[in-house]
């Protein structure tokens, strides 16, 4: 189904709603970035407020559905349930409950072949170190339940590095295990009535800044080599490192979550699908010290050797702000990244909206990326592709392993108070090719809105006009070079642009 909305009315009404939301979010930021009970009450309101505004403002743009993710084969009703209190846990925020979580999950393992079980975490502040999940388990957090990560690094055991990284991401050798951890699992759910998982990451951020880390910092949630995973209806705060990290996973859904880590906290990504396939992320609010979503697939020679790509990654209805990028790919992408679909994205008060990060020595590829329907407010660089990102695990990487970046399509974008439209810099002798931009209108403050080098592509209906390397027109000759670019050529679809050239007007209703 294709529609031709009144873009002036849409733009005015939509930005009005987004400005109201953004100002409200910014006004809350001091309290949001603290970790206390008031914060939790405030955070619970964020997703609902945003979705109401989005539905009102976007009705002419998008056909909305309750979920864009394919339903995965997991059991939402478990035949057996226990409370963490039955295993001696005390929710006072002081008592360490690691053994209680471990014992409860060990007990529930006997129900794995009987339809699975649910571990209920009631209201309270449940301090714990790292603990493992099991297959066929639902970890359910009640409304006022807070799982608190211990501030003692000894409660986060050190485990082997991931084979696709060859070492810890920050330091050679092992890495601290995540607070909530699972390996070789199936049918796992982390959900509830918007309970909270708080990593209390400030001690880790201080160690990073002071260069006193002994091992790479832990993630908040990490699932390895697992399938049929659902993470929903929960709030994640103050991760020591990346917040949600599915690696070597298949069939993962992350929906209706709020992730908040203070601006300035180092490398605190939101959601990082890593060498994983069939991942769906939707209806999330994220505010972090690094990328909101970063798609990865291994690091240099280790990622090339491991050879597991990230593919079929879909992102729907994401809103947030960051000191880095809204949606990033890389920089670790040596196993390859492809078939990425993102739509209805709202980024404000951020450094960049879309970013691809790679380097000579990475190898791998990023191809078939389609990003549509973005609204940007107060963003430094709307589109940023970097071919010289650097950062290598050791000196053994192959300097001749050049990445392939191709068929990256960005359509239907509006932006207010943007400093620079695009900084798109490939690698000399290894051009980024088939970069397609269409129907993009940005209010840009820089006199030179685009800076492009070692790239080749096409553009249509882009304001300010894109750089020379992308000035070949998409229609009619280059549509096939743009990924998933739908269009219809009919007399009613042809309109006049400001330069009096005929264009094809098209939007897809998702």
Automatic annotation (TrEMBL):
Pfam families: Glyco_hydro_28 (PF00295)
Subcellular location: Secreted, Cell wall
Keywords of this entry: Cell wall, Glycosidase, Hydrolase, Secreted
InterPro entries per UniProt: GH28_Enzymes, Glyco_hydro_28, PbH1, Pectin_lyas_fold, Pectin_lyase_fold/virulence
GO process annotations (BP): carbohydrate metabolic process
Molecular functions (GO terms): polygalacturonase activity
The family this protein is said to belong to: Belongs to the glycosyl hydrolase 28 family.
Protein's name according to its UniProt entry: Polygalacturonase/glycoside hydrolase family protein
Lineage, broadest ranks: Eukaryota, Viridiplantae, Streptophyta, Embryophyta, Tracheophyta
Gene encoding the protein: 11408219
